[in-house]
Please model this.
Amino acid sequence: MSAPLPKRIIKETERLQNEPVPGISAQPHDDNARYFDVMVEGPGGSCYEGGVFNLELFLPDDYPMCPPRIRFLTRIYHPNIDRLGRICLDVLKNNWSPALQIRTILLSIQALLGAPNPEDPLNEAVAKQWKENQSEAIETAREWTKLYAQKN
Amino acid sequence: MSSFPPPRHISQAGRSHARGHSLAPNFTSSALPPSNVRHSSSPNAPTSEMSLRGMSRLEGQHAMDQSRFLASKARVKNLNPPVDMRLLDYVAPYDGNLMCPICRCPFVDPVILTECDHCFCRDCIRQTWSAQYNPLGPRGDCPTCRTPAKLGLRCATSKILVNILDDLVVKCPRSEEGCPAEVKRGEVQDHVNIYCGYTVVNCPSDDCELPLRRKDMPKGCLHHGVCCFECREELQISNLERHWQSSCPQRTINCEFCDVQLTFHEREQHMKDACPALSIPCPGAAFGCTSRGRREQAETHSRNCTLARLAPIFAAQKQRLDEQEAAQKAMAHKLDIFQDGFASLQSLLCDPSDGAGLTNTQATVEPPGRNHRGRSHTMGAYAGTAEPLDLDFPTSSAQWSPSASTAPSRPAPNPPGPRPRDLPEPYTGDFDLAAPAFPSHSMTQEMPYTSPLHHLLSMHESLRDEMSRISAALAEVDGRLSMQSLNENMRTREEITYLGAQLAGLSRQVHWLTSSQLQRQQPQGAGARPANGSASSNVSDMTSVEAAVNAASNGLRGSQRMANGGNGMRRGLSEEGRTKL
Ligand SMILES: [Zn+2]
Ligand SMILES: [Zn+2]
Ligand SMILES: [Zn+2]
Ligand SMILES: [Zn+2]
Ligand SMILES: [Zn+2]
Ligand SMILES: [Zn+2]
Ligand SMILES: [Zn+2]
Model:
């Protein structure tokens, strides 16, 4: 980190700590303030309810001109999240706007857990299952949540 | 008009010069270049020569001053880059509406997108749209509402907004180095460039190129080494102040909790023992008291709190308990070793089926008589397994190896071959005497050992001795047994030879009798036909006697052969006799 940390990142980090979003936490690493350990709770009423999902978030050098890079670390059964934890979310790609923030992105991800979109899949197998037998897919997602997304 | 303008010009220039010292950086290069002055003065040429000469001299001096000033300004600018408005700290919280959604700071040079009325810093929106290069000028979607928009000429915001932003009060960017100034944001650049004592400028000394803080300028060149008189660290005078402020261990600081002044290196001690403002727990906290309070409160509390008063006793008892527990653990471990050792020794010495129900002392001190038989039978087998069993003991191999290596070379107590069970078991005295000797010997006399391991080792040693004694006794018993059987054997053989001799005598007599009878019958044989029946009966009698004698001698020969052959022939003899008879 040769360049000083932009004020925006400092402010966002402070606000994330001081006014945390319920069910979401983001903690910057001590040695790299651009790298965050993120924890998102599965939204209530969804098949991910009760799960605690860990993500990693990295703010690239040209943030906020380009979106943060974010990825699930916890395994999750979701049509828009692939095996490597990459997320198919428009605001993380073409629809990024510098007016968006870490907290709004994390809220979008939490919303994505509440409303999976198999029509725009990243994980083809899961999306297929989701379209063909939704109840079974939801049951699988529930099992995976129990299996992998438990607070330790 | 013609006579006054030059002085006015000069005075203007002079004023601008004077102002230049105070506010110059706000006058950018376009404001007052020297050429401008010359140009403005040349058309309005002075009428008199005097004034002309004076003018030119003044002008020359002025130009020199200005170039010097500009040069020093450039150097200062090099040392002090323009203030980054986005890094400023604002003294008071500002209205969230003044915050740019992109950089999250109060707008810097704000622009309004005419398409949607959203406001951004000019740099922020330019940067956002720079990726989508467009020959028609910067354009793209509004970052807030995604309305397609462009940055036109009429995008500047109203003066009111700019004024509000410029009136926000900020701290001097060098506040961390000590500058206490709080100025309006619109003036912060001037403050840094002109007033701030912490701005770095060039050393006033001509032969020194090093930077110096503006407030130190009157002191002259400070670029020579000194020692901090508190901590003896060597540094340059110009850095001394910073050293005292942030790194000298002897610097004075205020306790952040109680405002007491103390030196930095005392801080830790103060926090631990003295700071009255720091909340400290009751001394009985480990035993359940949840009270916390400032130091003086905590002291009064600890005088009244039962738990606090009992805390040292509790602590001592807890420590003792821990010690006891540790000791007990060690003892249990020792006991385990002992038990293991005893178990393997017991299995080494006793038949498992007999010894299982007996305690150690019963098995070793007063072994029941029938145990001996069991032992003697299993001896051969256990002698073979003695080596692997040794490994179970936690002894150091170096200490134990000599005796372990001699173990196989010990006299084999008994051949592992079959041993008839129905032979009489000899019961020797020394065998029995040896047995009770070892436990009393090792238990009573050699009890105070340095370690349980040594004790166990010595016991093992005595058991080993015991075993060798037992095996010697067994060898002796074996010898006696074989002697006895040999003796018996010889006696039987003698009897057999005696019987054989008698039988031979008998057969000789029978032979003699038969032959004399035959001689007597031969003369009568021709004339005495009627006596044929009786004669034939006589012959049959005679042959049967002969057969019996033959059989007896055969049996005797066989028995002799078998007596020589060794044990177990008695039955063979009887069987043979039965078949013959
Ligand atoms: Zn901005
Ligand atoms: Zn807009
Ligand atoms: Zn200042
Ligand atoms: Zn100097
Ligand atoms: Zn010092
Ligand atoms: Zn204090
Ligand atoms: Zn207490």
